[in-house]
Amino acid sequence: MNDRIPMSVIPGDYAGLQPGEARCPGPSVQDIVERDAKPAPQALRETNYRFLGEEDIEYSRYTSREFFERELQEIWGKTWQWACREEHIPQVGDYYVYEVGPYSVLVVRTDEGIKAYYNSCLHRGTKLRPEEGIGSAQELRCPYHGWTWNLDGSLKSVPSAWDFPHVKPEAYTLPEVKVGLWGGFVFINLDENAEPLESYLDVLPEHFGSWDMSKRYIELHIAKVLPCNWKTGMEAFLESYHVLETHPQLLPGTSDANVQYDVYGDHVTRFYAVGGISSPHLEKRLTEQELVDSMLVGDRSVVGDDLKVGEGETARTVMARYLRKTLGEKYRASLEHFSDAEIIDTIEYHVFPNMVLFPGVSLPMVYRFRPLGTDPERCLFEILFLRPVPDSGKHPEPPEVAFVGEDESYGVVPGLDPVLANVYDQDTGNLRSQQLGFKASKKRGQTLGNYQEVRIRHFEQVVDQYVQRAVR
Ligand code: FES
Questions:
Q1: What's the rounded Cα separation, in Å, for the pair 147 and 26?
Q2: Domain membership flag for residue 381
Q3: Which of 35, 315, 326, 358 is deepest in the core (most CB within 10 A)?
């Protein structure tokens, strides 16, 4: 076992630096990426950190019903959230029911494009479709008394229409929910005065200029209920500070303390973790060949000479070249245009409130965290793997959602890499204890790192901006 450098000294010995200025010793992400054989795009060559304060974040915001209800109203009722992928509803008549907290939205593909409606009948309120999921219909018929709407939302028929002379069809079109499309995702917003999705997404469209997420398909879709507040769950994935303690097996082949953190406008933050180097916490420097070997998952014997590090080469170059070839063959898509960084690094964007998006090629996930019903201490965590669409352009059909039981391991999911399953088990395994610890604590809030946990602070500050509208 590679010993760790005693970097975890008691804080306070960085005299002379302003808060937020201290960084992990050793090469930065930018130092490492600068040396890549196949250069990274501009979006990955910039840093955008700023110090956002150092006050504790109160635990009550993760446990209080009153705070949660303000979030339901001011966040979930007023922000852009991705409801489904366009490939969930490829044909006219296909629909997807998206639910969050008490809200339920029916997203429908019509002749005029994708529309979304409040999933509630205009007769006596019954949900037009009972629960989250996909389906297809040429009309939207209420299961209670049979009132029916066309896909475009216009009223089609009312049984015993003679009894409803006061129902004027033009006043009984289904109320619409705002829809926005980006990168193959269908976003909805329940606020009719919402700003356009494009401006809400801040730097995302610019950064994703060379990462066309509409040219990805869903290979795997996993869902698990977590026994914690939705923010507790999501914040576990906004920092890499926990890797040292929670995922020690990852230290030999990846960065952790030297991960780069960026904060942009209100709705977007990022972390950028480089692969093909060791954690700065490890005492022994691995050779480039040892680094490659530590990154490889699965049977080493099948890769032959493809993973031999040549004279003057780095582990990053060799691994990127190998994955560019093998993943390209596996997904029948040319990956030649991707830089080394885009192939092997872990690049993670957060879009407020609940989308976590990885544009990289070997770790191409999307996470989504939602409150479950109206319980502030339960949430739904979904993981989707978005792989490159084959060069033929044919979009494979979305898979069924694989549900993992609350006390079950991610190892039960067919097709999920066991190494990643273990990482997700480790990540989610902390959350029940943390949620319970919030309530067991004498201390009133969590103390965040100025740099490594800045995205959590940024996120919570934006939560405040939204919920404080409820108390004005
Ligand atoms: Fe929908 Fe009556 S509640 S038709």
A1: 67
A2: yes
A3: 315
Cα of 176 vs centre of ligand 1, distance in Å, is: 18
Q: Point out the ligand 1 atom lying closest to the alpha carbon of residue 122.
A: 1
Q: What DSSP assignment string belongs to 38-81? A: SPPPGGGG---------PPEETHHHH-HHHHHHHIIIIITTS-E
Domain count, the chain: 2
Contacts of 305 (CB under 8 A, 6+ apart): none
CB 317 within 8 A of CB 288: no
Distance of CA 142 from the midpoint of ligand 1 (Å): 6
**Domain match, 254 and 189 both:** no
For tokens 């060379």, the residue is: 210
User: Considering the domain boundaries, does residue 8 fall inside one?
Assistant: no
* Residues 295 and 411 reside in one and the same domain: yes
Walk along the chain (472 residues) and give the pLDDT tens digit of each residue.
456 655 555 565 666 889 999 999 889 999 999 999 999 999 999 999 999 999 999 999 999 999 999 999 999 999 999 999 999 999 999 999 999 999 999 999 999 999 999 999 999 999 999 999 999 999 999 999 999 999 999 999 999 999 999 999 999 999 999 999 999 999 999 999 999 999 999 999 999 998 999 999 999 999 999 999 999 999 999 999 999 999 998 888 888 899 999 999 999 999 999 998 888 888 888 899 989 888 765 555 555 667 889 998 999 999 999 999 999 999 999 999 999 999 999 999 999 999 999 999 999 999 999 999 889 999 999 999 999 999 998 889 999 999 999 999 999 999 999 999 999 999 999 999 999 999 999 999 999 999 999 999 999 999 999 999 866 5
Nearest CA to ligand 1 atom 2: 145
Same domain, yes or no: 312 and 394: yes
- Determine if the pTM surpasses 0.90: yes
**Number of the ligand 1 atom closest to the C-alpha atom of 128:** 1
Q: Is residue 66 one of the residues assigned to a domain?
A: no
Distance 152 CA to ligand 1 centre (A): 18
